[in-house]
Design goal:
Elements (H helix, E strand, L loop, with lengths): L1 H21 L12 E7 L2 E4 L7 E2 L4 E3 L4 E4 L4 E6 L5 E4 L4 E7 L2 E4 L1
Antiparallel strand pairs: 1-4, 1-6, 2-3, 2-5, 5-8, 6-7, 8-9
Length: 108
């Protein structure tokens, strides 16, 4: 009886933690976001300028100076820059790096 109660509870807890882990995104404390992903479809990932790890992005994910953003097959993303009416659309299999300085923004 113990196995029939504990195993499903532990399985549900493990699945919940796994779902939370793969759908979370990091925030940069003390840094101001330069843009925000306002819509994404399928797999869109971000890599911080000082990190080697790619993480999945969700809608309303902030983008920071130096971030690299990439899209996978059948994926796209739309970003809105904070300081202007500028927007950008990333089609499938795209890779960009957002750079922002006192002279303005650039995308490589």
């Amino acid at each position: 009886m113990f196995i029939f109660v504990v195993c499903p509870i532990l399985s549900a807890l493990s699945l919940g933690l796994y779902y939370k882990d793969i759908n979370s995104f990091s925030l940069r404390n003390g840094e101001k976001a330069v843009a925000t992903i306002y819509f994404r479809r399928n797999t869109v990932q971000r890599k911080f300028a000082d990190d080697d790890l790619w993480e999945r992005l969700a809608n309303k994910s902030p983008i920071y100076n130096g971030d690299k953003i990439r899209t996978a097959d059948n994926s796209e993303a739309f970003a809105d820059f904070k300081d202007s009416d500028s927007k950008i659309q990333l089609k499938e299999n795209s890779l960009i790096q957002v750079l922002y300085n006192s002279n303005g923004k650039s995308i490589d």
